[in-house]
Amino acid sequence: MKSVEVEIFGRLFRLRSDNPTRTQKIAEDLSEQLTEIYESYENLDFSRLLLLACFQREEKLQIAIEENQELKTELNRVNQMLESIVNI
Q: What does the pLDDT average to over 24-36?
């Protein structure tokens, strides 16, 4: 693991990562998201901004997981159809 320093919403954090480039990108995306949230809720402190960002990201993750499961189900259905065609 490598040490990487990232800036999130104007604050520096030193993290350890197997992929510093990805870690830096995640930090940049999170900082951008926090800035967007802050523009809507200027009265929130940093901790609450982070909490709101976590909830938003978790919601997007849950939606992506559901969509992924639907795609897996559809792929299995298509594979079964192909197998039945090939086995004829």
A: 97
